[in-house]
Amino acid sequence: MNYSMCADIMFVGVGEHGPVWPDTDGIIAAMELAKKNGINGIEFFDWENRDIEKIAAKSKELGIGIQAFCSKGGEFLGNPAKMDAMVSGFEQSIEAAKVLDCKNLIFNGNAYAQDISREEVHAAMVEGLKKVAPLAEANDVIVLVEPVSGGYFTDSAEAFGIIEEVGSKNVVLLYDIFHYQIMEGNICNTIKEHLPLIGHIHGAGAPMRCELTVGELNYTYILNFLREIGYDKCFGLEFFTFENREEKVAASCGILPR
């Protein structure tokens, strides 16, 4: 198991009109913080508004890999009217992934169609993922489907079912422990039962989306459990650090099995 930090979540600020996401220098600052804490990767949201050449160069300099970022158009998963935009955005994101030497592209489906039935959204998700799967396979990248609380998915069963329907080894689930604790709980059993369908895991303290050492989840137990069942992919730290960032990151990194 290796580890990453989500630069956008950890370095987001609060402005007069809402969140202020980190710029390129903020992404690099996240790399430096990861390096300081013995973490070998970072991940972030949008790549279009960042200088990916500069990020790629710093990644090589520090030895901090880009573990994942959000695919352009990935928010349209489950929106049949936007399927062409989703596929086109994925093709563009593949080229960005080559620059960043990144293998994992995230589809969050936050802009799924809300004027059609759940059955139609489900079908559109399967169809869309079947369209991008051959592109992912041909370019050796992984599509990470990430359900979040308050979005389309209300449990893990349907999400895992969609992954199985698509039937590609390059389309897997990003299992976000924070969101699934809110949706349904039963974290460890669910991960163990569906381990082959999981390509990435996110973690944050619940219910506040805080550091791993705070909240109702025992991450020392969870992380050791992941090792015991043979999870060998990435675990991403994705919690807010509006203040005392250094201390919160150090505390969370202190419980990671090495």
Describe the structure.
The structure is a single chain. The strands form 2 sheets. This protein has an 8-stranded parallel barrel with strand order 1-4-5-6-7-8-9-10, surrounded by 6 helices. The protein has a two-stranded antiparallel sheet with strand order 2-3. It is built from 10 helices and 10 strands. Helix 2 runs parallel beside helix 3 (about 50-60), helix 4 runs parallel beside helix 5 (about 120-140) and helix 5 crosses helix 6 (about 155-165). The protein starts with a strand and ends in a 5-residue tail after the last helix. It is an alpha/beta fold and about 260 residues long. The chain is globular, with a radius of gyration of 17 Å. The mean pLDDT is about 95.
What layout of secondary structure does this protein have?
Layout: E1 2-6, H1 7-11, E2 13-15, E3 18-20, H2 24-36, E4 41-44, H3 52-62, E5 65-70, H4 83-100, E6 104-107, H5 118-139, E7 142-145, H6 156-166, E8 171-176, H7 177-183, H8 187-193, E9 198-203, H9 219-228, E10 234-237, H10 245-253
